[in-house]
Design goal:
Number of helices: 5
CATH topology: Rossmann fold
Strand content: 15-25%
Shape: globular
Number of strands: 6
Oligomer: single chain
Helix content: 25-40%
Length: about 170
Amino acid sequence: MRMPRTLILMRHAKQSTHAARDHDRPLTTEGREAARLVGEALLREGCVPDHALSSTAQRCRETWECVSSAFETSVEVSFDDSLYNASARGLLDGLAAMDDAAQTLLLLAHNPGIGVLAFELAGSDENAAEILRTGFSPATTARFEIDGAWSTVSPRTARFLRFDPI
């Protein structure tokens, strides 16, 4: 029997309000520090992803750079333009296209999509729903255990594990 997978949902860290285009907004100094702390926490907890899937926005690229700088090994990352401001459905479509070789996957994207996806995956777990209602602030992560392939991620295959706001 295959072990359950781990899905880490993460909202990008705090970004600047200054850029010619929304897609190009960089992280603030505070955002870089928060993202680095997320990476250190994942390493400490033994939850380093095998693969990361990220929006192409500058703030997501920089968030990943800071998160992954804490890891002791390099982690493959795929940047996907369709994840930029994607809905929960769009994020699920991105997951469905992932190779099933990854046991632990970090999905790095934007609100409201990432927060809505977390809430939807919690399904009928009222405790998880109550926790997730507090909101997905920048650099927040939520973890789920997934039974089955990445293409089957749904409330039926996901079990809420933890929520870590920064």
